[in-house]
Amino acid sequence: MASSPSLENTKQRGGEKPIPLHENVLQKHAAFFDKNHDGVIYPWETFQGLREIGNGIFSSVGLSLFINLGLSQTTRPGKFPSLLFPIEIKNIHLGKHGSDTGVYDTEGRFLPSKFEDIFTKHAHTQPNALTYDELMQMIQANREPKDIKGRIGGLVEWKILYKVAKDKSGLLQKETIRGVYDGSLFEMLKKEHSTHTKK
């Protein structure tokens, strides 16, 4: 009997939610910041998204400028530069930088084997989580020679993630990191932050 197409194109381990292998999950990751759902992310939308997941005001201002300045022209190939620094989600894979984990391929698709490598190579304290030191070791291990832009991008991304998503023990759990790659973590953090600020 033939397998279901949805199962053929997914990877699932244990009770984890499967991620479709054929889909551009990098677009889903970026779509959280597209607040008006027009396929374009402007700096003020990036700022809003960062605030929603628990980032501070000043940090969110700096990061939104850093992110949009870094990705705008890359995701708008052949177009004249815009002073509004928009990011086009359909081309977000073009903004993929070096010195990363390789969990996204060049088309923005999820690679399960690379995701598992994060933990087999770097999770020495607990098999399904990273300490801060292990996270820094992973970032250093992924550095490519002379790739200043990629190194800075990777360091900033992971430090933001650690700041807003570490657990009470100071660990980044495997499912938390998985949620970053498929974009589901952002909605969860938004809900948690919203609940916290209302108390």
Q: Note poorly predicted spans.
A: 1-15
Tell how many strands the DSSP assignment holds: 6
Overall shape:
globular
* Cα Rg: 17 Å
Brief write-up:
This is EF-hand domain-containing protein. The protein has 199 residues and is mainly alpha-helical.
Explain the layout of strands and helices.
Elements: H1 5-8, E1 10-11, E2 19-20, H2 25-31, E3 40-41, H3 43-52, H4 57-71, E4 87-88, H5 112-122, E5 129-130, H6 132-141, H7 148-165, E6 172-173, H8 174-182, H9 184-198
Antiparallel strand pairs: 1-2, 3-4, 5-6
Helix pairs in contact: 3-4, 6-7
What does this structure look like?
- The chain has 199 residues and is mainly α.
- The protein has one domain (21-198).
- The chain is 50% helix and 6% strand.
- The chain is built from nine helices and six strands; from the N terminus they run αββαβααβαβααβαα.
- The protein has helices at 5-8, 25-31, 43-52, 57-71, 112-122, 132-141, 148-165, 174-182, 184-198, and strands at 10-11, 19-20, 40-41, 87-88, 129-130, 172-173.
- Strands 1-2 form a two-stranded antiparallel sheet. Strands 3-4 form a two-stranded antiparallel ribbon.
- A hairpin with a 7-residue loop joins strand 1 and strand 2.
- Helix 3 (43-52) crosses helix 4 and helix 6 (132-141) runs antiparallel to helix 7 (148-165).
- The longest helix has 18 residues, at 148-165.
- The chain starts with a helix and ends with a helix.
- Residues 1-15 have low confidence and may be disordered.
